Amino acid sequence: MNCKKLVVVGDMFNEFANGKDVLTISQLELLTQIPANIIDKEHEIIIGQGIRKDFAGKVISNQARNAVHGNKLKMCSLEKLVNDKKNAHCHKRLEQNVLIGSAERTEHNGDLFTMPLLIDERCELMADHQTGQHIQGMLLVEASRQAFIAVTEEFIYKQETGRYYVINSMAINFSSFLFPLPALVHFEYLEKDVNERRGRFKAKIRVTQHQTLCATMDVSFTVYSSGLISEKEKSLAEAAMQAAIVEQKGTMIGVVHA
User: What are phi and psi of 138, to 5 degrees?
Assistant: First the structure.
């Protein structure tokens, strides 16, 4: 008997779910609770975008607890999602805001890296403006930003702490809609100039889905030690504050004399 594929997505992508080949995680959870042979054929779960780890954990628990129901669901991908950690090098505090998985070098000692796109529907950029079908472009911008930080932290600075990233330029081109299905983020260094004081980089990031190019970002960024940049940032912040105070005083004087 052939094993059918069943894609599971987050509840926010309910308009994408068709109930046949694509289910939301809540619909899958319900199926694992129904006391009957609802799913008589073997199905392999494919993880789409938007799934919360806690919801995935509930589904796995239901399936194990209700094995007597005979629902033939292969949960390997859900178990992997629950057990694997997302990328730990992209400077985000909350795991649900991390949009990428672990980076892997795609050639020995080369400058090409690949990581999966992993969107949690609780992500800070998922709170508004969702069509329910394609994934909004700003999520791909943020995933690309996280990618260049994560790869540089892990493979250039070897996870040293105290690095500050300054974006010099960022240009993104959207080629195709990206839907809540598996996708990859590809990172490539184009230029590297690293010394004791700072590192300057140019890179290209691509987001693909099933061999389709969805977005391309060209980015230029500089990396400093946090101690060096924090002093400069502090002085610039103070100067900006004083300028704002002076401007506000001038505005108030103009109102009084009017």
Answer: -65, -25
